[in-house]
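Hi R.,

As promised, here are both runs. First protein below:
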Amino acid sequence: MLHLRLVVPRRASAAVVDFLVGDERVTGVVVLPGAGRDPEGDAVLCDVAREGASDILATLRRLGLDDDGSVAIEPVAASPSARARAAERAAPGSPDDAVVWEVVTDQAWADARPSWSFYAFLTLATMIAGVAVVLDSSVLVVGAMVVGPEFGAVAAAATGLALREWRLVSGALRLLVLGFALAIAITALFALAARAAGWIDADSLTAARPLTGFIWRPDKWSFVVALLAGTAGTLSLTAGRSNALVGVFISVTTVPAAGNLALALALWVPSEMGGAAEQLVVNLSGMLLAGVVTLLVQRLVWHRVARSRAPLDETARPAAP
């Protein structure tokens, strides 16, 4: 279940409340007349089945909430009541399969927004990956993957492509390019300082690396893993299962490839520059492609589910004022 907190303009309040009370996917409707101050209006609280949330929100927009009202969406940890179970049964499909497009889109815009924390985490992850390459440590490679925040921007770009939000696409791609450029540059400076101190040299990169040598040698499986990870990551975001993202982070060789590239540039090892750069591009491209396809399939499926329910809904919905 999801909890909706609405501020409804008074001119639309009666229609909104009648719609919510009459929809079997909605329960726990509470109306506080005149409680809204900014914006002004009636405060309306309710719980909705996750599977029907996007359809219900679309109707609320048609009833006028986009113009002068406001909508907030919160997850419900538990709703142990007969009415909540009835609302779940009335909604099509499974809650785990449902996509609340408003939540997905809002999260995508947030993930495409530049922030110092994104740049900081990506830089730190790339530096950890650089140390992992020098030490040939698979443990540090995994650590670097987990710290890296890049999947959010990849998912934002995929969302923008799937929904044709071109400003979202350009913002997310710009964030990825600038983020990796900054992370690689700072890591390369770090490597130059370590070289000046005598800690590392070109042999540190060209020596046998049985545990991390794969980082700069992409192959067909690199793209396959990126596709699988991108699909899993997108499903975890749309289904609200953020714990699954950890598995995605440690599956793709983006941050490790950036770390390897930074070292190759600083120590000037051309033989590994191209491979590391290709590994980075292959993984980002695979995740982006998988994300777009996954979102388009989900959009098609839920559009058909909504259409199959439309005749029933139209008989229960009041006309917009």
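And here is the second one, sequence first, then its structure tokens:
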Amino acid sequence: MCGIFGVGGHPDAVTLTHLGLYSLQHRGQESFGIVGVDEQKGPHAVRSMGLVGEISREHLTGTVAIGHTRYSTAGSSTLENAQPVLVRSRGGHIALAHNGNLVNAAELRVELENGGSIFASTMDSEVIVHRLARSPASAPAERLADALQGVDGAYSLLVVLGDTLLAARDPRGWRPLVMGRLGDAVLFASETCALDIVGATTEREVEAGEVVAVHPDGSVTSSFPLERRELRRCVFEHVYFARPDSHVFGGSVDRARRALGRRLARECPAPSADLVFSVPDSSNAAALGYAEASGLSYEFALIRNHYVGRTFIQPTQAGRDAKVKVKYNAVREVLEGKRVVMVDDSIVRGTTTRGLVALVRAAGAREVHMRVSSAPITGPCYYGIDTPTRDELIAAQLSLPAIAEHLGVDSLGYLSLEGMLESVPGGPEGFCHACFSGDYPTPPPVDPDKLRHGCGC
């Protein structure tokens, strides 16, 4: 999912960007990076694997900066794939930070390679960098618009060309991107919580298909050079990815999750239960909503170790399994002898959930009723979530009773697709729900190896 943050026109742009990335850590934990652009010294980059950490301020200065926290969906988890990208071209330096996934990156990459381009990474974002370098347009916003023509898929972008900061969002608006102000400076972030940490005021969303340019003199211009498409905002942002203290797609994440929980309680009641608890932290608000609507007491039955990252966004299954074992512990005094409702926001592969149910059983729970505040995930996402094949998705392989048996629960209930879409702000229209419904707005990505061997099937 990745987190991006940018500042234009502030003397301490690098420090602000560094702080903003801490608030976007939940969106990516594999690597982080910052590019600062100084009028005198030019652009410099710092990139590192792992969580956001300390950076050297000696060389990283400037009034323009962009930053990135990475969660890989295209390209391996290596330092060469860390962002922001920083390159020097005949038209000057290019820095880019990307949140999303390009569905036609393989075709574009082969086309560029056939034209002589040499790629330094395996990530899809580098396709846009090469197209920027080749663009004949002179004005920065026009160069970006030109580079994005024919690029399909999900992208929220921050780009620095020279000393101009650019922000862009794909025509379907899959991924969030907001614009804020801090004095005379202009800021961009994946979520509003990152603007809050630096004391900035949220001004508005960058609209789908929009390119915003922050010029060196502080002026801001906007254009809509990309063909508008039907809105396809990712509903999973409200369900799981975004922080509850953020506003995304024009609505409160916390309010959305409480509404999802209330609807879940109405659709999937558990009348014999004694209490409700969440799988912390992303399910806390949904569990509160479930407790509110059901009249059951809300308890803290699972304790999370906050020094361990999010399990679902670990890049390997081995990493996810290991993280479950050290991330949670059950509170026996809450669970022993009780019939409990365990609320989670989603079940993807099922491995984390099965381990948690075993923890709850071991702590003495008499009955465990699993409730999920989203619909069953039955298809892969091509737009920025790491669910590449149906084989990895438990709801695509097993029936509801078989899933319940596999997880070891007494009952299992998912929120309906209709209930999920009606619970989020601005719903039910304008959201992407392809991983739940199979309604994909684009063809699936093509295998790049087939393309290189002359087969585009």
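A quick note on the second one: The mean pLDDT is 92. Let me know what you think.

Best,
J.
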